[in-house]
Every structure is written in structure tokens, then in C-alpha cells.
Amino acid sequence: MKHLTAHRLIEFLVGLLFGWGLMIAGMTDPGKVIGFLDLAGLWDPSLAFVMGGAIAVGVLAFAAARKRASTLLGGAFHLPASRDIDKPLVIGSLLFGAGWGLAGFCPGPAIVSMAAGQGKALVFVLAMVAGMALYEFMDRLSHRPPAQTA
Amino acid sequence: MMIDWNHFTPWASAWGGIVLGLASALFILINGRVLGISGILGGLLRPKPGDAAWRVAFVLGLMTAPLVLAMVAPPELLTPPRIEAGYLTVLAAGLLVGYGTRLGSGCTSGHGVCGLSRLSPRSLVATLSFMTAGFATVYLIRHLL
Questions:
Q1: SS3 B52
Q2: Residues B3-24: tens digit of each pLDDT
């Protein structure tokens, strides 16, 4: 039981840290995101630095994880099993990118901004959850097994 | 190409990115999972038994972040967000992001940060796809319509 509580606390703190990272990086400002996506206008390259910083640390962490049989707490790794580059991957990502460009929000920053009291972020998150529910509904209709998520 | 020097924040963005990388590192090394927001949230809609609590704990942490930062950070660090899109556009964008990230199995965090960090070809294709669609959408809105 104590072990379980420690796990929940770690997940909470990692969520907290991730939220701070998004805010420090400027990801919670849709204007900044769109400034990066606007190559033909006044371009703000900041997001490339966000990706660079995150991946520099991430590469080391995932390389360390690959060498281990279990997590630091002795648990199992749950890594995405799918290796196929298929239509759902590409079409889904294109739809996501279109939505990202429309408003300048991706899922993490939208949740953080909603919690900060942004009305538009609240509308975005509600619509996002509805879009996810629509996916679940259609997925169940087509009887495919639940998607493995990256 | 013209650089927007007024809004360009290389240091803050790189440090923020390092914090995102650290959070992702802790998550894979301690919890054994890929830190992907759309997957963590989407998994709550049809959770398997025992698979919901960790997701809720993470999302609550994410939502607590701005509340704590607002108390400790100097106000000039927290610039108010610029949101150009109207409510209807935001609604459509949310639907696209929700449906698209689930169909494509991930978003900027799961594919863009973690997937690229673990050198996943699937995530590279996903990241190139959503980046391309993002560039094209903004070009369409700002320069063609």
C-alpha cells in the first residue's frame, strides 16, 4: 500500500515538473507556437530549442532504460509495441498537426493553460476529450484492439 | 526568412526543454512508461482495471503546475498567452487534436520528445507529419486566407 502511494506521488510530481517545463519553455503561449509554425512570416525559432533541450536529456534516459531489465523501482517497462508505419499513424498525425496550427495548443500546454484559468484552453480541452471519445467510439465500432500509445 | 527577435527566447526555451526531458527521463526510468500526454489522457476514456489512478495522478500534477508557479515565479517570467484563434476555431482545433493524437498514437510529447529520444522510426514519421501539417495550416491561415 505504501509502495502504491509512493508511485502515485511520483506520477503527480512528474506531471508537475512537466507542466513547469512547458511553461518555462513558452509552450503554453499559443502565439509562440504559431510563431514557430509561421515560416513565411516573422519566425520565432524557440520551439526548436525546446525540442533540442528535451531530446538531449531524453536520448540519455532512453539509452539508460534500454540497458536495464526493470525500472529503478523494479517494475516492468511498458514500451509501445507497434513498429508499423501505417495509415492511421500518418493521417492521425496530420489531423493533429492541423489542429495544432489552428489554435497553437497541443495537449499538455492546453491542460496547463486550462488549469491556469484560460477560457479558450478550457474549450479546447473539452473539444479534445470529445475528439478522443469519438476515436474510442469509432475504434470500438471497427472492433480493432485498443491502440498502443507512444 | 525573418527572425522574430522580440519573441525569440533561446535560453528559456532550451531550459524548459531540459525540464521536459528530465520529467520524461524520470517517467521512463521510474515508472517504465513513455510520457505522452494524449495517451495518458486518452487512456482514461476506456481504462483497463487498475490503469486509471496513475493517469489521474499525472494529470493532477500537470494541472497543479501553473498554480504553484504563479505563487513562486517572478511575474515577468509569466508572459500572458497570445491566443489569436476565436472560440469556434479553438473548438475545431481541439476536436482535430483529440481525434488525431489518438488515431496517430501520440502528440508532441509522446512522439516528438520521447519517440525521437528513443529513435523510433514510427515517431519520426509522426513528428514530420504533424510538423508539416502545422506549417501548412499556419501558412494557409496567415498568408493565403
A1: coil
A2: 999 999 999 999 999 999 999 9
